[in-house]
Amino acid sequence: MSQQQFMQNPWSNWMKGEGPDSDIVISTRLRIARNLRQHPFPLLATDSQGEEVVRKVTEVSESDAMRKRHHLQVIQMDQVNPLEKRVLVEKHLISPHLAEESRKGAVLLSPDESVSIMVNEEDHIRIQVLLPGFRLNDAWEIGTKIDDIFERNLNYAFDETRGYLTSCPTNVGTGIRASVMLHLPALVMTQQISRILQAINQVGLVVRGIYGEGSEALGNLFQLSNQVTLGMSESDILSNLYGVARQIIEQERVARTYLLEHTRVSLEDRIFRSYGILMYARTVESKEAAQRLSDVRLGIDLGVIPDVSPLVLNELLVTTQPGFLQQHAGQKLTPDQRDERRARLIRERIADTEK
Amino acid sequence: MNCEECGKRPATLHLTKIVNGEKTEYHICEHCAQEKGDVFTGFHNFSINNLLSGLLKFDPMQKSAKESSANKTLRCETCGLTFAQFSKSGRFGCSDCYTFLGDRLDPLFRRIHGNTQHIGKVPERTGGQLKIRKELEQLKQALQTHVASEEFEKAAEMRDRIRALEQKMAQS
Ligand SMILES: [Zn+2]
Ligand SMILES: [Zn+2]
């Protein structure tokens, strides 16, 4: 796939929505942080030191062992314009940090975009695996094999007591951050969400809005991830996260059934109003779009709206973001222009999938 | 371009700081970067690091003034990061920082992770070397005890095993 296609194509593998429990778990993400010995961390590295790390990592990515598994394409951050960077961020393929602050940053992408490896983000190497649905173990299997190939060819910074050494003390040890993106409209509507989020904080997990640190949960989407990386094995971390996510999924299902049984008319009213707005509105802001899309997605999952594919909703959540809209338009857009294009895009895509 | 701080040495670090969409560029030499912990703090306007820095500054484990002055002079010999800079930025400069800052990091790790010891995956290649190195240490100790107690046959056996392991290490 060419660099251009990564930017234009709205479809990432993780948006195809066909994993286990995909009525609630939109995607599973696993990140593995690794660093090279005898190279200053990216934060301190000079440009030439940064370039050297990119060269070494790229070399391994072109080795036979890696080619057998993944054909990775290298995209250097200094060769991508700000809009294209934003698209990569909105598709969750790179972090805002790599886009905005890293020097000599690069990303290695697999054609289906399920694997993206950031180079010179906060750490030298950050392997990311992104899959649709609830698939923590699959994500770990894919990630750890890539990790093994890198490790056979590079000198990793590893210490017997501290494990994998990272730039930030919050990642040391296993260096893994696993997360699941959950769509929890019924827990929000029944106002149980804050109670659940509080409980989560007490078991070493964290919850964030979908665009990471500090951002609010757009469209009832919550990202649940592990906090602890030292003193727990990878399998403990994953099974802990799995167990808690499993519980939240069940609670969301209970809440959905409750809403259907006790408030069917007002629930259906809310869902169809949102559906109506998305089908006919001529202008819609991103925040409203996220909320309406969430309602419609719930309607699809509950069988209230039978004819729309849930996949369209996953796609629209990404393609209605500002960067994507502008990339699609091929120009910078004012907020008003964006709202108009967003409304049109949603109308067209929903009409496309209706029978 | 010369360093903006000292004006003497050539600027080798070019940092871009973005706060609320406003971009500021710094051009400084590595010496001044190490002197000036601010660069580290400024570079990351990231809440988690302020948090970490808070954890380190008000460390109740660090009781005596003596201990805190010992912390001040502590620095990584590879990248030059001092403990003071680390406690401001919450970031390490290189992987050797872990060695040089050493046990001082334990209270921090305990508070973030509830633990100080890694128990997860061990890398195949580097991990294998670690295992051999540990074994070597044990053999060398055994060799010395055998020599001291004049058990020369056993000592010779140890010596052969050490040689074999060292060869294995050199090959890998
Ligand atoms: Zn200077
Ligand atoms: Zn260091």
TrEMBL record, chain A:
Keywords: Allosteric enzyme, ATP-binding, Kinase, Nucleotide-binding, Transferase. Appears to be allosterically activated by the binding of pArg-containing polypeptides to the pArg-binding pocket localized in the C-terminal domain of McsB. The lineage of its organism: Bacteria, Bacillati, Bacillota, Bacilli, Bacillales. HAMAP family: Prot_Arg_kinase (MF_00602). Catalyzes the specific phosphorylation of arginine residues in proteins. It catalyses: L-arginyl-[protein] + ATP = N(omega)-phospho-L-arginyl-[protein] + ADP + H(+). It comes from the Bacteria. A motif (RDXXRA motif of the pArg binding pocket involved in allosteric regulation) lies at residues 338-343. This is Protein-arginine kinase. PANTHER family: ARGININE KINASE 1-RELATED (PTHR11547:SF38), ARGININE OR CREATINE KINASE (PTHR11547). Transmembrane segments: none annotated. Its EC number is 2.7.14.1. SUPFAM superfamilies: Glutamine synthetase/guanido kinase. Belongs to the ATP:guanido phosphotransferase family. Residues 24-255 form the Phosphagen kinase C-terminal domain. ATP binds at residues 27-31, 92, 126, 177-181, 208-213.
From TrEMBL, chain B:
It comes from the Bacteria. InterPro entries: UVR_dom (IPR001943), UVR_dom_sf (IPR036876), YacH (IPR025542). Coiled coil: none annotated. Residues 133-168 form the UVR domain. It holds the Pfam family UVR. SUPFAM superfamilies: C-terminal UvrC-binding domain of UvrB (SSF46600). This is UVR domain-containing protein. It comes from Brevibacillus choshinensis.
